[in-house]
Amino acid sequence: MSGTFAAAPHGDILHLLVMITVLLVVARGLGELSSRLGQPSVIGEILAGVLLGPSVLGAVSPTLGSWTVPQNATQGHLLEVVGLFGVMFLLVVIGFETDLALIRQKARIAFAAALGGLILPLFAGLLLGYWFPEDLIPGSDRLVFALFLAAALSITAIPVLAKVLRDLGLLRRDIGQTIIASAMIDDITGWTLLGIVTSLASLGRVVPSAILRAVAIVVAFVFITAFLGRYIVTRSLGLVQDRMTSENRLLTLVVTLAFAWGAFTQALGLEAVLGAFAIGILFGRMRRLPADVPQKLEGLSLGIFGPIFFAIAGLKVDITGLAQPRLLWLTLLVVGVATASKTIGAYLGARYLARQGHWTALAFGSGLNARGAVGIIVASIGLSLGILSQPVYSMVVVMAIVTSLMAPFALRYVMRRVEPEADEAARLRREEAAAASLVSGIRRVLLPVRPRGGSHGGAQTIEAVLLGHLARDHGLSVTLFSVADREHRALTVEFLNQLEPLFGVETRVTKRVVEDTDPAAAVLKEAERDYDLVVLGAREVDSTSEALFGGVVDEIVRLVGIPSLVVRGASVEADWRPRRIVIPTDGTPYSRRAAELAYAVAEPDALVTVVHVVSSDSSTLATGTDRAATKLEIGRQLTDDLRQVGESMGIATETEVRMGPTPEDAILETARRINADLVVLGTGVRAASSRLFLGPRVERILNACPCPVVVVNT
Questions:
Q1: In the chain, pLDDT over 70 holds for what percent of residues?
Q2: Residue 436: predicted pLDDT
Q3: What is the average per-residue pLDDT within 388-396?
């Protein structure tokens, strides 16, 4: 046992630290240079490894080169582990950004491009394998060699492709998501074929059971991930988020499950990176996962481990062993056949099976051509099994790196000629408009309710509709939270069960009942558990009362550390919908955030009225006509700015700039005139002893408005 846990030799640890230091510095430096030259950073990161490896530094200065390349198996294994972390973290991040709904819409195109990108490389690889010189094929089984070469040519490297698409800003484009889907199909099929070939190599003959087993493994992986994987992610996320309080616990959960599912995938005979990618997709669909978790993992991946991984891929290239004219010519042939077969095959599939345009089809061929580190892994397997000789291994590695370097240049050239369609352009504008908004960060919502004496039916209906609309595009996680004593716990649970059907199918509802003598304190404690928004229902405002909304609600709004949304409900019908919305604006960030939320919850056919009021009291009039005209012009600019935000999100918006003795009177008059369904006010808590104070104008609108009012406090 002591030997099993023995530390690596001191010299090997020193060598590893030097390698990582140099690789990271040079990879980040060349990645930065690539970005400044308008190219994806992955090009510089791969080239860093090529320059530091045996092809350049090792050839020019063997002494220095010996410090950047592993010198024994232990050093190589240690460096490979670091690279494995890099590729797994990267695939989790890419999984976060993968849109399954969009991929389903483009499934026919993805399958067509993948099919073409598989058949032609497989056929070309078989022909090339049978043509290859006999002295370069170890053993005498040319069929196994040809099948292995076909598999190597058919596989696409998802890590490299995803990083290229991300660097080029194409990952959120329809075509970017569809190319990723095609690469997944190619990759899984290629690994299935590889499993068949390795079985053939070990048994010496084609065994039907081996083929069936390889196919069954892929089917099992897909179904187990879709059902058991999703269940594990959902339950573990809820358990860790609701029961644990330690910092970075959710980051730990994501990384743990990525490694666990990678181990599961590796045990099936597939690649661990597919498991990490699947976990990223599953967590990306969990709206209750805080936005900072993907951001932290992204920083870790793209800033540290990712560049090291790509540099290690480049480090494995050794062109010195291919310096003989015959071997160099064969290497160029392998690269040429791999590039032509993949590009033309994917192009034909997308162009003629999916009826895509010329440049769009060419984009599939350009992207799927990248083999990257996956090609290197395949080559390593072939070398270890004795299927590939050392020269052919080097040829496949060079092919993998060259095709990876070609992909970004080809994609950049082709995508200049691929314009997004109208629907895609509208979606991209909406995503861009929402990227920095309050709404884009809302994933998990806390909704405190009470069976008696709390939110009345009107507020609860409004809350359910608004949250259901927030969940339309990206889903939402809502926790129905209630405080009850032991005697009323069963009644409270039943009440929460009755509320759950009010929410849409895109909203995941969690119900929590706790026992506490202080409801406000219980809500405030719960709000510390990674929520992005707390939604509170309020009774009618009573200006004669010490409390604005009620003691519990007031205390929560004053003290909660996250944005809050207070719904002052009115008597509304069960089919109430926000079709006519009024947004007052004074140019502050508060009113802009209120507008962002209003657009997000509006019906698709809604008309939003943005109102700015210039006070017409004596002090304003005394400043003269020019001054008043200037204020009106500023008001028009403010309302036009919010109108553009609304239109970018596909919501019809009108603006209204008016003068009035008091802004609140003008706002209330507009709400009555258009028969508004909702008024959305943006504000911030103001200091006023122990009473919640939102300002006299907000409180007057709350008190006198004929329709429901939502107060957005950020």
A1: 87
A2: 61
A3: 82
Of 548, 549, 526, give the one whose Cα is nearest residue 455.
549
Q: Which pLDDT score is estimated for 257?
A: 94
Least confident window among 370-379, 427-436, 477-486, 493-502: 427-436
Segment holding 219, helix H or strand E? helix 208-224
CATH topology of domain 10-419: Na+/H+ antiporter like fold (1.20.1530)
Q: Bin 336: left if φ > 0, else alpha if -120 < ψ < 50, else beta.
A: alpha
Whether the per-residue pLDDT at 387 is higher than 70: the answer is: yes
What Å distances lie between residue 115 and 128, 129, 502, CA to CA? 20, 21, 44
Q: What is the pTM of this model?
A: 0.71
465 three-class SS: helix
**Res 473: pLDDT:** 65
- Which DSSP letter does residue 141 get? -
Helix/strand number for the chain, H first, E second = 30, 10
Least confident of 252-261, 567-576, 644-653: 567-576
Say if CB 595 and CB 610 are below 8 A apart. yes
- Provide CATH 1.20.1530.20 ranges for the chain: 10-419
Topology given in CATH for the domain delimited by 435-713 = Rossmann fold (3.40.50)
At 690, which amino acid appears? Answer: S
Is a pLDDT exceeding 90 seen at residue 442? no
CA angle 690, 693, 696 (to 5 degrees): 145
CA distance 378 to 270: 11
Beta partners for residue 656, in sequence order: 611
Average pLDDT over every residue of 57-70: 85
Stretch(es) of the chain classified as CATH 3.40.50.12370: 435-713
The answer, yes or no, to whether residue 691 has pLDDT greater than 90, is: no
- Who contacts 666 (Cβ-Cβ below 8 Å, separation ≥6)? 611, 613, 658, 659, 660
The helix/strand/coil state of 402 is helix
* Three-class secondary structure of residue 536 per DSSP: strand
Other residues' Cβ atoms within 10 Å of the Cβ of residue 588: 13
Q: b vs e for 269-278, b when ≥16 Cβ sit within 10 Å of the residue's Cβ?
A: bbbbbbbbbb
pLDDT, tens digit, 9 for 90 and up, residues 171-191: 778 888 888 888 878 777 776
Distance CA(352)–CA(357), nearest Å, equals 9
Distances (CA, A) of 164 to 175, 271, 508, 677: 13, 20, 34, 47
